[in-house]
Amino acid sequence: MPAWAAALCGLTAGAVALGVAATAAGLVDPAAFPVAAVGNTLVDVSPGPLKDWAIRTFGSSDKAVVTAGVFVLLALGAAGVGRLVRRRGLPYGLAGLAAFGALGLAAVFTRPGASAVDALPTLLGVLAGGLTLALLDRRALAAVAPMPSAPTASDEPGRPDGLGEPDHEGERPAVMRAGGPAPGFDRRALLGGAAGGVVLAGVGGVAGALLGGHRAVDAARNTLALPRAVRPATPLPGGADLRIPGLSPFVTPNADFYRVDTAFVVPRVDPRDWTLRVHGMVDRPVEISFTDLLRRPLAEADVTLTCVSNEVGGPYVGNARWLGVRMADVLREVRPHAGADMLLSTSADGWTCGTPLEVVLDGRDALFAVGMNGEPLPTEHGFPVRQVVPGLYGYVSATKWVVDVKVTRFDRDTAYWTSRGWAAEGPIKTQSRIDVPAAGAAVPAGRTVIAGVAWAQHRGVAGVEVRVDRGEWRAARLAVTPGPDTWRQWSIEADLRPGGHTIAVRATDGTGRTQPAETAPPVPDGASGYHVLEITAT
Ligand SMILES: Nc1nc2c(c(=O)[nH]1)N[C@H]1C(S)=C(S)[C@@H](COP(=O)(O)O)O[C@H]1N2
Ligand SMILES: [Mo]
């Protein structure tokens, strides 16, 4: 058993310990990672002149240098533990590991505000390191056969596993005889174990970093205080919400807001690292930090978002009060070139979206939004910054986690969904939906309230009509709206005789156009047709 092999055992155990500790720290608190805690403690206790020197010499990477130093010391220590196992036996090695753990725990608990759970990363790490050491000790170190009798053992003929033909034993390198008694240590088992340990440690470290980053972004969001709007939205008119049970509330609570995106894992964008680059066919490209963005005058707007893949009567529509910087303000600063007609926006996870430039510049409340219903954007809805453009389906307007806007032309660039068969431009079609009664519901015969929402963003909803069975289209009562960019609640009463009934709804937009009866599927530019449902009066 060469010294390097013993050191490798120790190093592997140390790596596994740190990987496990890193994952646990990512879940519990990144500051409870023992390496970070020891590094912090070292910085705290080191004399002033040493600190000054470190800052002068390493600049802003001084923390990284200290951390690297701790890792080097730990590596030496881990190698030492491995050699201790070789010379004195496993219990001594385990004791060595425990000693490192104790140091780590001490550092973790000298941090202000440390709580009992902060011990977990170190304890789990030591446990995992100890197990790894024991495992490697059994698989690799303890495979050492008793020296003088080894040849006798392999002389036995007819081994059931067919390995280690006794006659050729001596000619074959030890590494090819895994599993058989060997006149040394089992190198293959050790190397395999070490490789497995390194992989485990790497996975643990990455998981810890991801989980920790996750928590850091959540913390940044939770402590973010958004400035007030310079142009506040008009307070919601009293009659915007008819407050009918079962009817979608005028303002969709963030927790209930539909979510549509291609993100398998929700991007966690740290506002401290976030920038928005606006470039392309412009005179003066800019790159805006989150702090810069919040220093600009903020506007507020009530806007209803809709997804192009919403079926008639479907759920992918929601209304919120957004707070943000007007996209037009930023675009005027960068001075788009004549001939540019599209904004190609890109999210932190690489999704792209093409928005007509003139729509954004025509005076409507197109926002780089930071707030949704009085709080920072929820992570799933684009924290820290997303686009909101009234009147356009989300796939051509509502880029979440937006980080880049390129001023370009529709004939030069293609966005994510456009290259997958959806229309390049996506103005929202006028639509209406019956919320109450629910489809298939049984209601008491007699007077029944029928209610729902209708939308035709930026044109506004001017009328809603309802038809029961083969009857006349009757005008529904409309709720008040703050402007043309939100949906509009409506309701009507109907007298229903016992039996089955068919209810249909249609809306007319602010330009006087009634939504067409012809049905169309969502592809390529949005569903159309009346929302029709069956109920029973009893
Ligand atoms: N980054 C990113 N932004 C995106 C999408 C996406 O897949 N990725 N989907 C868009 C689509 S299709 C819609 S309908 C809206 C939905 O916004 P919401 O999830 O906040 O309701 O986001 C848009 N923004
Ligand atoms: Mo969408």
UniProtKB/TrEMBL annotation:
Oxidoreductase molybdopterin-binding domain segment(s): 265-414
Membrane-spanning residues: 64-85, 92-110, 116-136, 189-211
Annotated protein name in UniProt: Oxidoreductase
Organism of derivation: Spongiactinospora gelatinilytica
Segment forming the signal sequence: 1-17
Record region (Disordered): 147-179, 507-529
Listed Pfam families: Oxidored_molyb (PF00174)
GO molecular function, one term: heme binding
Alphabetical GO biological process terms: sulfur compound metabolic process
